[in-house]
Amino acid sequence: MPAILPTTARGLLAAGFLALVATTAVAQPPPPWEFRDGDCIVFVGDTFVEREQRYGYVETVLTLANPDKNLTFRNLGWSGDTVRGLSRAGFDPPAAGFRELVKQVTDAKPTVLVVGYGMAESFDGQAGLPRFVEGYNALLDAVAPLKARLVLLSPLPHEAMAPPLPDPTAHNRDLAAYAEAVRSIAVSRDAAFVDLFDIVGKARARREDQPTQSEPDTDNGIHPTDLGFWRLASMPELGVKPGAYLPSKDLKTTEQGVQFTATDSRLPLPASPATGKSPDGARSIRVEKLKPGRYTLKVDGRNVVTKTAQEWSKGQALPTGPEAEQVEKLRAAIVAKNRLFFYRWRPQNITYLFGFRKHEQGRNAVEIPQFDPLVDAKEKEIAALRKPVQHTFELVRESEASR
Q1: How confident is the model at residue 356 (pLDDT cuts 50, 70, 90)?
Q2: pLDDT of the residue at 23
Q3: CA distances in angstroms from 246 to 73, 159, 192, 249, 264, listed in the order given
Q4: Each residue's pLDDT tens digit, 38-93
Q5: Containing H/E element for 108?
Q6: I want to staple 21 with a disulfide (CB 3.0 to 4.6 A). Which of 14, 49, 185, 264 is the partner?
């Protein structure tokens, strides 16, 4: 009778398919935020926040980390924005931008408000710090009646890029000061603080010694690419713990091999857009005492990998399977939902629909609320995709697998 023995699965804390897969737990820092069932998490900020919705990696990871919670994410980022809502003023005086910023946050009804400002203001240097702190506190005071739990993000560091892009040394000194200012605001308000300046800066320094991982995070030193957002979302400092399989069920041994079912406690983190690999690492299976021959591993009836009995006895890493495909479907649904919500709260022709030229096309404004059911439909899709599902694993002798 085949014997299933423990083996390692890099990056995954697994109780195993009845001791089929196991690994060593890695100490994780406490998460910067704790979500509750029913939370509405609203991101507000500048270009960094706005661009995250284009790739969805941060939202996907936070969704995966909470498969048992009904969470709603809303992105209110606006490129080049400041804590005074300057980019949101449009054709109105600057003060109107702040009123619009507060209204947009209020309308979103957050229970958790994630604030990401400081990059645009940092170009004002040290002289602009008092104005930044004053504006930041004015924003938090204005939305305080919402009683949302706060998570404050520091600005990212300026990445060194090849000429003709500028040397970021001086700018990073200013960014460090703005990051420290956000930290101080967080402390004074008992808010969670995520020091992206420190976390990302250290990660980039580590990669300097790894030429194979030298592709930059940004396209211009400041704005992350899809790879940059993926790297950020995958960092353990975000507090996402390694995934795990629940114990297998219905384990059966037969003359042909073994069969069992298993379910993840959470789905794996998204795969890198550069390498196609998840930071959770590869899972592996080790099975001893199989009869001589070649055995094919099937997952939900689909052939995955074929190895000899001797190779299975030594343990074999598994290629990505249906769980990874589910994660990519989840991320695609999140990106689609964010796009629909963007059209809902920030239509491209907003001046003609609601502004001073609404006398021309304002009649079309009735169509904007029609995005609501489309967003709701995507939310239902996300809710289904975030939950791990049970998969059936079979190890079948080649002669049987080919039938």
Answers
A1: confident
A2: 38
A3: 28, 41, 31, 9, 6
A4: 999 999 999 999 999 999 999 999 999 999 999 999 999 999 999 999 999 988 89
A5: helix 94-108
A6: 14
Domains of the chain: 1-26+242-403 (no CATH), 40-241 (3.40.50.1110)
> Which residue type occupies 16?
G
Instruction: In whole angstroms, give the CA distance from residue 303 to residue 316.
Output: 15
Rounded CA separation 71/379 (Å):
9
Phi and psi, residue 287, nearest 5°: -130, 125
In the chain, the N- to C-terminal Cα span, in Å, equals 22
Bond from prior residue into 388 cis (ω within 30 degrees of 0): no
- Residue 103: other Cβ atoms inside 10 A: 13
- Regarding predicted confidence, which is higher, 166 or 247? 166
Helical segments of 109-209, H only = 119-122, 129-143, 169-188, 196-207
Neighbouring CB atoms inside 10 A of 192's CB total 18
